[in-house]
Amino acid sequence: EDASSEKDEL
Amino acid sequence: MNIFRLTGDLTHLMSIIVLLLKIHTIKSCAGISLKTQELYALVFATRYLDIFTTYISLYNTVMKLIFLGTSFSIVWYMRRHKTVRLSYDKNNDTFRHYFLVLPCFLLALVLNNRFTVREVLWTFSLYLEAVAIIPQLVLLQRSKNVDNLTGNYVFFLGAYRGFYLINWIYRYFTENHYRRWITWMAGIVQTALYVDFFYYYFKSWKNNEKLKLPA
């Protein structure tokens, strides 16, 4: 699933 | 961090430097869409809400500050600077922001990963960034001839997300469970919007002639 919690990109 | 993403970020930074060079050195914003610049400032403002609460790396924080600082100062230059604002092509830069902001916000309310304020605004910033270039492309078509700096600015701006697409493919194959459907879709749309610009940009470069977008 799209765990976009860690947003490490700009 | 991988080379594709680093190249993408540096290409993005390059586009901003080219634009600032144009505005700061020749004190002109001819051919530049203020609407697009304002949309980008909104993109960064809603994308980097966590800049002071989440620390990823020094690079990440520094780049966020640069993108925020430069995007707002470009808007300031074009609105307030006594000389630069005179070269703003107000009559041709007539694309209405809310035609882009509203649909992106509504879509972010519906299509997101978590229904929280921050997540919805972050998703909104992704959708808005994908279409923020449209007023600029419309202005290019209306401007008779496009100067080199403006052409290079749009080129680097389009190329950066293209490098991100490669970065996402790379991460998908190297990091298991790396999935970013929403980010990927927005990134594909964003890069696709530049395809015809890239075509005319390379054609003008190959034939060594002035960049001209057909109306």
Automatic annotation (TrEMBL), chain B:
Gene Ontology MF terms in the entry: ER retention sequence binding
Keywords assigned by UniProt, alphabetized: Endoplasmic reticulum, ER-Golgi transport, Membrane, Protein transport, Receptor, Transmembrane, Transmembrane helix, Transport
Protein name as annotated: ER lumen protein-retaining receptor
Cellular compartments per GO CC: cis-Golgi network; endoplasmic reticulum; endoplasmic reticulum membrane
PROSITE patterns, A to Z: ER_LUMEN_RECEPTOR_1 (PS00951)
Family classification: Belongs to the ERD2 family.
Topology in the lipid bilayer: Multi-pass membrane protein
A Pfam family reported for this protein in Swiss-Prot or TrEMBL: ER_lumen_recept
Spans through the membrane: 12-34, 54-77, 98-115, 121-140, 152-170, 182-202
One Gene Ontology biological process: vesicle-mediated transport
Cell location: Endoplasmic reticulum membrane
Record InterPro entries: ER_ret_rcpt (IPR000133)
